[in-house]
Amino acid sequence: MKFFPALKALVFLACLIPLARLGWFGYTSQLGANPIELITRSTGTWTLVFLMITLGVTPLRKLTGWSWLIKLRRMLGLYAFFYVCLHFTTYIWLDQFFDPQTIYKDIIKRPFITVGFAAFLLLIPLAVTSTNKMVKRLGGKRWQQLHRLVYIIATFGVIHYWWLVKKDITQPVIYAIVLSVLLGYRALVWLRKTKSANLSSSHSKPMLKPSQQNS
Amino acid sequence: MLIKQPSDIKPSEITDKRIYQSRRDFMGAATKSIAAVAAGIALPGLLSHSQEVEAATAAKLSGLQKSSFSVTDPLTPYKDVTSYNNFYEFDTDKSSPAQMAGTLNTRPWTVAVEGEVKRPKVYDIEDLLKLVPLEERIYRLRCVEGWSMVIPWVGFSLSELIKQVEPTGNAKFVEFTTLHDPKQFPGQRSGVLDWPYVEGLRIDEAMNPLTLMAVGLYGEVLPNQNGAPVRLVVPWKYGFKSAKSIVKIRFVSKPTNSSWMKANPREYGFFANVNPNVDHPRWSQAKERRIGEFFKRETLMYNGYGDQVARMYAGLDLKKYF
């Protein structure tokens, strides 16, 4: 595709809009009464959004036939990591102010923080192995197996959101539905594959012996 | 009628809200006013509307007495007090109530005081405002979510009202009910809580001189998003205990199963006293973020009102009765 480099640059910039928006809100004092809460919520939300978008690349590529989409996936995934880093930094710096005791207690005692922290930790090896060099070093198959961790990470992310909400779970439910569709698509593909593999393997034998087909 | 023209107020008795707002807020408001006036010159209809709004928001409460219960902590800016609200009757988002508050109509308004009392009565809001001289009380407010404010409420002790209706010996608890009208409270169309919102206090808690019926803040009539026209303020308990836009006060013999207890009995108890040593099952209550402050501060036992309230809970297992 001729315009791909320009498109990629555009997507790169678009992905920075959520951060720019926060910056603008800060500059024009529109962060509201509880700015730290707003920043934490916003960076967390955008982490989830980027995880969903990243998971949406493959289904969308299959549906539309736009093979170039795959070339954006790494960048989108790294943006999820970028926003989770901001989210985590906001929590340990602005929210807890590097109070190791409180942070430790939070991670151990509070299920929503435990699961969110686990998701963050699991995302680190994926970010680290995102380079071409690392794909080569690991080998395509092992790399792919490792990167399937994103299914667990995204699930943990949605649970993290669900468990922190006081009562109105509308938003987490929306993310859960989107994630179910994205993971459900993969489950269907996988089921179809194993089915057709089974069919072809069970068909292959009689095909070799045509006489048996008539019996 | 206690709502008077600005000229009737002694300047010494009004808390000037501008003092508590940053220059930037003030400049912002000024810019908006200029814009409103400019728009008004072009569209006379708009001007009269904006003047109406101005008049409504600027309704001052006069002759306020000072209270010895007031704390000396710096006040949370008016803008934050009136734009960051948990009021699920409008919406679960905290910035929505201020934007949606226009759907609530606070006149006419009555409060039925009933149940185990010798003199049940339906009070008109205007009579409630004249019941006893109004006081300004600067209270800390600690939300169960972990943030806090310092608000100059205007109101009167609930005990004054209770004395008038003369509770019987069976009146062990007091139940407060918020207006239930999905037309005025669009949030009530969702099933996020079991409507109407009900809250309860033990009779001694209700009689505690700290327990306030608030009808205003910052020397002005209570904004709708803060629970107009009359709300409860129980400063040693988490904010959700302080029911807003009250239409019924009922004296009963059994503790109220409040809306939040029904929503999640494991997380929200009847007492809901501010307690840094008993965590919410999903988050710590040891610290709080005072709105407007950067660093979190330690949460105080009973929100710092232990001297006035601790004896009511002597011998009570606070981990069990949270």
Automatic annotation (TrEMBL), chain A:
UniProt key word DNA-binding: no
A cellular component annotation (GO) from this entry: plasma membrane
Listed GO MF terms: electron transfer activity; FMN binding; heme binding; metal ion binding; oxidoreductase activity, acting on diphenols and related substances as donors
Cofactor binding notes: Binds 1 FMN per subunit. Binds 1 heme b (iron(II)-protoporphyrin IX) group per subunit.
Chain segments annotated as transmembrane: 46-64, 76-94, 110-128, 149-165, 171-191
Matches recorded under InterPro entries: Fe3_Rdtase_TM_dom (IPR013130), MsrQ-like (IPR022837)
Membrane topology: Multi-pass membrane protein
Cofactor(s) recorded in Swiss-Prot or TrEMBL: FMN; heme b
Lineage: superkingdom: Bacteria
GO biological process, one term: protein repair
Record localization: Cell membrane; Membrane
Keyword terms, alphabetized: Cell membrane, Electron transport, Flavoprotein, FMN, Heme, Iron, Membrane, Metal-binding, Transmembrane, Transmembrane helix, Transport
Domain Ferric oxidoreductase: 44-157
Job of this protein: Part of the MsrPQ system that repairs oxidized periplasmic proteins containing methionine sulfoxide residues (Met-O), using respiratory chain electrons. Thus protects these proteins from oxidative-stress damage caused by reactive species of oxygen and chlorine generated by the host defense mechanisms. MsrPQ is essential for the maintenance of envelope integrity under bleach stress, rescuing a wide series of structurally unrelated periplasmic proteins from methionine oxidation.
PANTHER family membership: PROTEIN-METHIONINE-SULFOXIDE REDUCTASE HEME-BINDING SUBUNIT MSRQ (PTHR36964)
Similarity remark: Belongs to the MsrQ family.
Subunit structure: Heterodimer of a catalytic subunit (MsrP) and a heme-binding subunit (MsrQ).
Name this protein carries in UniProt: Protein-methionine-sulfoxide reductase heme-binding subunit MsrQ
Organism: Sulfurirhabdus autotrophica
From TrEMBL, chain B:
EC number from the UniProt entry: 1.8.5.-
PANTHER family named in the record: PROTEIN-METHIONINE-SULFOXIDE REDUCTASE (PTHR43032), PROTEIN-METHIONINE-SULFOXIDE REDUCTASE CATALYTIC SUBUNIT MSRP (PTHR43032:SF3)
A molecular function GO annotation: metal ion binding
Native species: Sulfurirhabdus autotrophica
Similarity section: Belongs to the MsrP family.
Oxidoreductase molybdopterin-binding domain mapped to chain residues: 105-260
Family matches, as NCBIfam families: PRK05363.1, TAT_signal_seq
Keyword annotations: Metal-binding, Molybdenum, Oxidoreductase, Signal
Biological process according to GO: protein repair
Post-translational modification: Predicted to be exported by the Tat system. The position of the signal peptide cleavage has not been experimentally proven.
NADP recorded as keyword: no
Protein name: Protein-methionine-sulfoxide reductase catalytic subunit MsrP
Residues of the signal peptide: none
Main function: Part of the MsrPQ system that repairs oxidized periplasmic proteins containing methionine sulfoxide residues (Met-O), using respiratory chain electrons. Thus protects these proteins from oxidative-stress damage caused by reactive species of oxygen and chlorine generated by the host defense mechanisms. MsrPQ is essential for the maintenance of envelope integrity under bleach stress, rescuing a wide series of structurally unrelated periplasmic proteins from methionine oxidation.
UniProt subunit comment: Heterodimer of a catalytic subunit (MsrP) and a heme-binding subunit (MsrQ).
